Amino acid sequence: MEYNRIKIVRSVLVIAITAFMANIPISNLRFLSDLATTIIDASAGIANSISEYKQYDVFPPHESPEEFDFVIVGASPSGSVIANRLSEISEWNVLLLEAGGVPSLLTEIPAAVAALDRSVYNWKTEAERQKGFCSGCLHNRRLNFGHGKGLGGGSIINYMICTRGNKMDYDNWEVMGNPGWSYQDLLPYFLKMEDANVAVNDSEYRAKGGPLGVSDVYFTTKLGDVFMEAAQQAGYPYVDYNGRQQMGVSRIQGTLRNGLRSDAENSYLRSVRHRKNLKIRTEAHVTKILMTDSKEAYGVEYSKDGRMYTVLAKKEVILSAGGLNSPQILMLSGIGPRSQLQEFDIPVIEDLAVGTIMYDHLTFLGAAFLINQPVGLQVLDYALDPQTYVDFMLHRRGPITSFALEVIAFLKTNLTEQNYPAWPDIELLLVPGHLSTDFGIFFKQIFNIDDEIYNSYWKPITGKPVFTVLPVLLQPLSKGNVRLRSKNPFDTGKYTENYFSDPENLDIKRMIAGIREIQRIASQPALKKFEPRLVTTPFPGCNRFTFDSDAYWECAIRAIPASIYHQQSTCRMGPRTNKEAVVDARLRVHGIRNLRVADISIFPRPTSGHTVCPAYAIGEKAADLIKEDWKAASTEDNLDDPY
Fold first, then answer.
1. I need a surface site. Which of 107, 220, 228, 354 has the fewest CB within 10 A?
2. For 108, which DSSP code?
3. Mean pLDDT of the chain
4. Which pLDDT score is estimated for 20?
5. 138 vs 454: CA distance, rounded Å
6. pLDDT by residue (tens digit) across 288-314?
7. Nearest alpha-carbon partner for 533 in 375, 374, 376, 371
8. What's domain 66-633's architecture?
9. What is the C-alpha to C-alpha distance for residues 332 and 633, in angstroms, rounded to an integer?
């Protein structure tokens, strides 16, 4: 199996190198991206034939409705955790339904991450067009808005960055009317889930032995070391950002174990797939939640292999389909804004603010610096060096364990409430390369960059030593939404991001402040000998502004933004008195019995960081809430109603 894994990756790289050495124009290299995607899609098709991946979906659906205690919709990180934890109770029968398939060998290789984005493991959706935004995007100026599809959800295609978020994120959730969701309440779940291998750590905040591997990145460049030194010279302490203090700089901590991706499938599902009381069904697209006239969920309808099936839930339906699919399924089932449902002639069962708010974490791709030495990623050198493959096959180290991100820093601008100085609003991510480091094969497609901008800005620096720092807006004020496109459950939702629409324009000002901080770090003595200098080629449409002015950066940020696929808060948690709330503090849908939502859609406000590790914690806590409720009901001889 190890040989096959490396053979596939090396074949793709060799083809790419051969094409490059043969002087095939960069504009014609799109076929390499398509080839890599084809290989990954093909590997997905054979995953069930490999022993390590067997035993999924071995129980075909019945013609007559099956019955389980719990039906979980979506094998997202949260849904996978819940399936594992509920099936620990041997007398409970659990069904996990997932619209996608089984991850393949390639999803576990960190260096393959770029090729996964346009593969069968991504829903490959796009946001709606937004005026004055994404002028540098292809496909009718629309932003890619992908999310994971398959056992493990987004954890099988993401960039593996594990950030818990900030203590104030969760304390604020509790203040908003959600008892039990403070940082101290969630810390035990962060500890329960992780198997940490972090060199610099706050031991009282870290744990060993959990299902999910969390490790420092395995491969780093000299540039990563130098950038961290420069950040410390700029006043950023080196921290365990998942420990006592988030503000500072650090090596990235990834969901990694032994040089491979640690995801929800291989961490939470693979080891329990043989449990007699757990059935996992893939390629099962849930179309509707079934409810009685008395507003009680009792099952779901789903499509598999072109046929429709019904499955019944004696206790609960648990919706864990993610920030975009969970609200869509609720609305298709009659739970959502009355006006939205009536527009599509869907009977209104409960009028709730489903999908009316969506937050996302946005970044900017154009803060690139030329340097005078090749101390960052050297993709061709790695690919041509046999030692690259030996290191990975024998020792699980080297460039194949890299996912092109090395250093992370958290800061607070002066544009955000200063009463909480340790609550960051900007994250910085060091890329020891740039968008054309891969010669236009993958990243141009991932970020949907149009040819004019790519050819004018990135193509001239192809092959040159360049690093990029991505500023990420952590606490956006702008709110998007998720709506139905139609009542057809196989249509994608309609996703409107509304980035930079806050009345005071603070979101764009924070992003510009992030760029100014990147420039300050780049000016520190540690980096000075590499002579970092901003790429000064103006982005098309922005040359009417003075380069490096605030007006120029605002134009550039609006031209080439990128979502990092953290769509959240679409089924917000809050008390019934909150008109924007969809679920209560125990994740039960307001007004509906026996139905919960448990994934990042329930976030009342965004977390200060990436969402995958909070998603695991959501799953761990949700499982305990469900166990508490039904065990209490059992004790009271009231098995059917803990509500």
1. 220
2. G
3. 90
4. 43
5. 11
6. 999 999 999 999 999 999 999 999 999
7. 371
8. 3-Layer(bba) Sandwich (3.50)
9. 30
Q: Is residue 390 annotated as involved in ligand binding?
A: no
d(CA 436, CA 460): 9
Is 552 within 8 Å of 367 (Cβ atoms)?
no
- Rounded Cα distance between 465 and 372, Å, is 7
The yes-or-no verdict on residue 435 having pLDDT over 90 is: no
Reduced to 3 states, what is the DSSP secondary structure of residue 438?
coil
How far is the C-alpha of 162 from the C-alpha of 190, rounded, in Å?
A: 11
Catalytic residue among 147, 361, 434, 610: 610
Q: H or E element: which one contains 410?
A: strand 407-411
Query: Residue 25: exposed, middle, or buried by beta-carbon count in 10 A (0-12, 13-18, 19+)?
Result: exposed
DSSP structural state of residue 602: G
Q: 3-class DSSP state for residue 280?
A: strand
Per-residue pLDDT, 55: 67
Longest CA–CA separation in the chain, Å: 75
The per-residue pLDDT for 139 is 66
Nearest by Cα to 199 from 255, 253, 249, 259 = 253
- C-alpha span between 464 and 375 (Å, rounded): 11
- Compute the distance between CA of residue 105 and CA of residue 43 in angstroms, rounded to an integer: 7
- Rounded to an integer, the average pLDDT of 9-26 is 44
Q: Is 144 left (phi over 0), alpha (psi -120 to 50) or beta?
A: beta
Q: Is the pLDDT of residue 425 over 60?
A: yes
What is the per-residue pLDDT across 227-254, written as a single tens digit (0 to 9) for each?
999 999 999 999 999 999 999 999 999 9
Q: What Cα–Cα distance (Å) separates residue 378 from each residue in 11, 83, 308, 436, 462?
A: 18, 42, 50, 12, 12
Instruction: Give the angle 196-467-528 at the CA atoms, nearest 5°.
Output: 105
**Among residues 148, 111, 108, 116, which one has the least CA distance to residue 37?**
116
- Residue owning tokens 């974490």: 361
| Catalytic residue check, 610 | yes
Report how many helices (DSSP H) and strands (DSSP E) the chain contains, helices first: 19, 24
pLDDT recorded at residue 641: 52
Q: Which of 361, 434, 566, 590 is catalytic?
A: 566
Is 62 considered catalytic here?
A: no
- pLDDT of the residue at 449: 85
* Number of CB atoms found within 10 A of residue 326's CB: 29
Number of alpha carbons in the 13 Å side-chain half-sphere of residue 98: 29
Give dist(CA 371, CA 98) in Å, integer.
46
Query: CATH 3.50.50.60: which residues of the chain?
Result: 66-633
Tokens of 627: 């166990």
- Paired tokens of 109: 């290789």
DSSP string, 373-394: S--S--HHHHHH-HHHHHIIII
Residue 551 has pLDDT above 50, yes or no: yes
User: Hey, is 148 helix, strand or coil?
Assistant: strand
As a whole number, mean pLDDT of residues 573-578 equals 97
**What span, in angstroms and rounded, lies between the C-alpha atoms of 241 and 243?**
5
pLDDT at 8 over 60: no
Give residue 2's pLDDT: 45
Give the 3-state secondary structure of residue 78: helix
